[in-house]
Amino acid sequence: MTKILNTLHLKRGYTLLFAVLVASLALGVAVFILSVSRKQYILSAAARESMYSMYASDSGIECGALDPLRNDWGNGAGSPSRSFSCAGLTQSITFLRRYPADFDKSDSNFDKYYTDIYGDKHYAYVDSQGNTPYPQYEADFRLGFKEYSRTSPTSGKESTCALMSIIGYTTDLNGPDEKKHTIIQSRGYNVCKWLTYGVETTYGPVLSSPRTVERARQLINE
Amino acid sequence: MNTTHHTTRAFTIIETLVAVAILMIAVAGPLVIASRGLRAALYSRDQMIASLLGQESMEVVKNIRSNNISLGLNWVQSLGTCVVTAPCDASALSATIRSGCSIECNWSTGYPLTFSSGYRSDGQGEPTLFRRMFFLTPMSTSGPIDEYTVNVVVSWTEGTVPNELRLTSQLTNSTR
């Protein structure tokens, strides 16, 4: 009798153990599937956000490639201002002359730069031959873009934005081979909102957001 | 001896009921998680396809603009009539812009896309989940228009849940 009872005691708990094992296995498989799917979702969302940023930077290039900005940034003395309309907004931008002394900061790569009122870094432009031409005329501004739909066909809804830099310089000034060169740089962002910098309020990127993606494009007219 | 044996058997029945209950809860939970995971994977795939379909349409529009300028034509020739009330579709596989949203086209979601050597809006091939359209919004109301906003909309349905991807870019009368 003792033997029978011992055998019954040994068998007790087997079903429960089996249930827990099967449940653990099922849970493990489910968590694995969810983990893979989550990564796929993050990847596809990142691809989508990246595309929004890419078209924001492309929109910036489209605006920068318009004639007033591309070919009319001045020559010689002064800091010319130009008015232009793009993305439903007319704004005036000023081209500032930059000399070596203006690039008064350097980072770990010893590249010289200055920071604008928004806190953005601007490096000295180096041409395809590795030369840094001076003076460089540079205008920095921001563009906000809207999307339109059947429900807002004319007013639109704010979406993406771009940080723009237009750099111009002249080679062989007053010489027989005088030529103007323009470099249009556009950094596009997917997460943007109205931000205040000192007295100026502009529609700019939210750099602190983990969703923010930057895509940049450059149009060189050398 | 009989009493002991009966008590042991009763324990086994209770144990089995507990085990079945645990199994039911423990298997149902993971199944729901796995089902949601698979649904998220399908959504990810469709979202990726929608992103690329939107990009395709946008690039075709920009290519037509560039060709028009380089050929000395009106820079928005064959595009200018694609406005919010009459959307069009541009596909890399079709030589022409699809316009004239008719019976098979829904004005709020666009032209149905089919699949035959790629996604297309000319009706050839097998039907797909996706619909697509684009329209231009002029950025000025007077004088020659040198800028439009291109809006591409790709929509699809997962079960009964409608999804939409919107892509926007400026289009200007400028060369690169």
Short descriptors:
heterodimer; A: about 220 residues; alpha+beta; five-stranded antiparallel sheet; B: alpha+beta; 5 strands; about 25% strand
Tell me what the structure shows.
The complex is a heterodimer of chains A (222) and B (176). In chain A, a hairpin with a 5-residue loop joins strand 5 and strand 6. Chain A is an alpha+beta fold. With 176 residues, chain B is an alpha+beta fold. Chain B is 39% helix and 25% strand. Chain B has one helix and five strands. In chain B, strands 2-1-3-4-5 form a five-stranded antiparallel beta sheet, covered by helices on one side. Chain B is elongated, with a radius of gyration of 28 Å. The model of chain B has no long low-confidence stretch (mean pLDDT 86). Chains A and B meet through helix 2 and strand 7 of A and helix 1, strand 4 and strand 5 of B.
Question: What topology emerges from the helices and strands here?
Answer:
The complex is a heterodimer of chains A (222) and B (176).
Chain A: H1 2-11, H2 14-64, H3 67-71, E1 81-86, E2 89-94, E3 96-98, E4 105-106, E5 112-115, E6 121-123, E7 136-147, E8 157-171, E9 179-189, E10 192-197, E11 200-205, E12 214-221
Chain B: H1 2-70, E1 111-115, E2 119-120, E3 126-138, E4 147-158, E5 161-172
Average pLDDT, all residues of chain B? 86
Flag low-confidence runs of chain B.
none
Mean pLDDT, all residues of chain A: 84
SS class of chain B: alpha+beta
Number of H/I helices of chain B: 1
Question: Can you count the beta strands of chain A?
Answer: 12
Number of helices of chain A: 3
Shape, principal axes of CA atoms of chain A: elongated
Strands in their spatial order, largest beta sheet of chain B: 2-1-3-4-5
Q: Beta-strand percentage of chain B?
A: 25-35%
Portion in helices of chain A: 25-40%
